[in-house]
């Protein structure tokens, strides 16, 4: 791979241009890369430019960049032709979470790129060790898991599969800092990686509370927003335990762990949502009701909030906190 500090010399491909894919494209463009955006289906290709322009508009409004979207489009190729990926040093797959579809995508990528090109997946559900079996030269395959919006958050999770070469993971880890991230590197493939294991443990518990009439939807959301939401941007969970003091945790764990949910079943409420094709703010049908235009206003509020939380996270980044502490 070319000198990492010169992102303009590193061509990066993104395959799959939905909400997450277009957001990743925007993140890579503002980091200075030449980006090749591949739409696996024609419908995605038709909408890709407007999606990416919308993401870049958010970047401008947030003060992440000074140049207008048109500037970045000069460094962007949008195509349905996988041959455009030929010069890429890194290709990130961001398609639907179905292994048979991902397999076809990997074959098309591998057919046109160098055997040394790093191939990453944004998957949040399928083990990297399983996916890399579908790729020639599996040592160059790993997980590169972003959070939406990719251009705002400081999150990036890099996961090694059983066959991933450590030097390839280290390259992406180093490159991620040029993307404005504070990345984590998992040297061993674990189901759900870190962030999904944490969040789905929470999801299981909130549905347990809801379905057993122990708490209602609004109170669960308020509890999460105004407790965890008040400190998570500054400190992680272990740091929070240190900050609050460890004296009582043994007693609390002893009393609380036995009554937490350990169900292995999909919650009935989630089955209901799937049966009515609920997609939340994306179609106005979800766990909450949405009046006309309300879902769109949530999207606007989230964009504004992300800008503020990004600035706060940057102000209290790990490096700056260490400086504050005199380390």
Q: How is the main sheet built?
A: 8 strands, mixed
What percent of residues adopt helix (DSSP H or I)?
Answer: 40-55%
Derived structural class:
alpha/beta
> Roughly how many Å apart are the termini?
33 Å
Low-pLDDT sequence parts = none
Compute the number of helices: 13
Report the portion of residues in β strands: 5-15%
The ordered string of helix (H) and strand (E) elements is EHEHHEEHEHEEHEHHHHHHH
Shape, per Cα inertia axes: globular
Let me know the average pLDDT.
92
Radius of gyration: 21 Å
Extended strand count? 8
Strand order of the largest sheet: 3-2-1-4-5-6-7-8
Report on this model:
- By secondary structure, this protein is α/β, with parallel strands linked by helices.
- It has 13 helices and eight strands.
- It has helices spanning 19-30, 42-61, 69-73, 99-110, 128-131, 166-178, 195-211, 217-226, 237-244, 249-256, 268-275, 294-315, 318-324, and strands at residues 11-15, 34-38, 76-79, 90-93, 118-121, 141-146, 156-160, 184-186.
- An eight-stranded mixed sheet has the order 3-2-1-4-5-6-7-8, with helices on both faces.
- α1 (19-30) packs across α2.
- It is globular and about 55 Å long.
Based on the model shown, name its key terms:
327 residues; alpha/beta; eight-stranded mixed sheet
In short:
The chain is of the alpha/beta class and 327 residues long. The chain is built from 13 helices and eight strands. An eight-stranded mixed beta sheet has the order 3-2-1-4-5-6-7-8, with helices on both faces.
Secondary structure topology:
Elements: E1 11-15, H1 19-30, E2 34-38, H2 42-61, H3 69-73, E3 76-79, E4 90-93, H4 99-110, E5 118-121, H5 128-131, E6 141-146, E7 156-160, H6 166-178, E8 184-186, H7 195-211, H8 217-226, H9 237-244, H10 249-256, H11 268-275, H12 294-315, H13 318-324
């Amino acid at each position: 791979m070319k000198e990492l500090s010169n992102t303009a010399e590193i061509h990066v491909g993104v395959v799959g241009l939905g909400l997450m894919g277009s957001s990743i494209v925007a993140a890579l463009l503002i980091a200075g890369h030449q980006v090749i955006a591949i739409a696996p289906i024609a419908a995605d290709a038709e909408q890709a430019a407007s999606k990416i322009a919308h993401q870049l508009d958010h970047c401008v409004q947030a003060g992440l960049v000074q140049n207008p979207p048109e500037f970045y489009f000069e460094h962007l190729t949008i195509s349905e032709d996988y041959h455009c990926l030929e010069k890429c040093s890194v290709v990130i797959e961001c398609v639907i979470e179905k292994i048979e579809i991902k397999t076809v995508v990997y074959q098309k990528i591998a057919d046109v790129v160098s055997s040394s090109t790093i191939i990453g997946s944004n998957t949040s559900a399928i083990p990297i060790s399983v996916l890399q079996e579908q790729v020639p030269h599996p040592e160059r395959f790993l997980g590169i898991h972003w959070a939406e919006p990719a251009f705002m958050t400081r999150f990036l999770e890099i996961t090694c599969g059983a066959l991933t070469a450590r030097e390839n993971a280290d390259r992406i880890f180093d490159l991620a800092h040029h993307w404005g991230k504070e990345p984590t590197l998992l040297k061993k493939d674990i189901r759900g990686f870190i962030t999904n294991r944490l969040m789905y443990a929470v999801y299981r518990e909130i549905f347990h509370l809801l379905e057993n009439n122990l708490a209602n939807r609004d109170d669960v959301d308020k509890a999460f927003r105004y407790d965890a939401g008040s400190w998570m941007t500054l400190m992680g969970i272990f740091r929070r335990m240190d900050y609050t003091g460890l004296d009582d945790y043994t007693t609390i764990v002893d009393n609380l762990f036995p009554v937490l949910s350990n169900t292995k079943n999909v919650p009935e409420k989630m089955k209901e949502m799937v049966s009515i094709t609920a997609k939340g703010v994306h179609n106005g049908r979800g766990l909450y009701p949405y009046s006309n235009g309300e879902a769109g206003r949530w999207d606007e509020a989230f964009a504004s909030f992300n800008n503020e939380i990004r600035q706060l996270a940057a102000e209290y980044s790990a490096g700056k906190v260490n400086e504050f502490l005199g380390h």
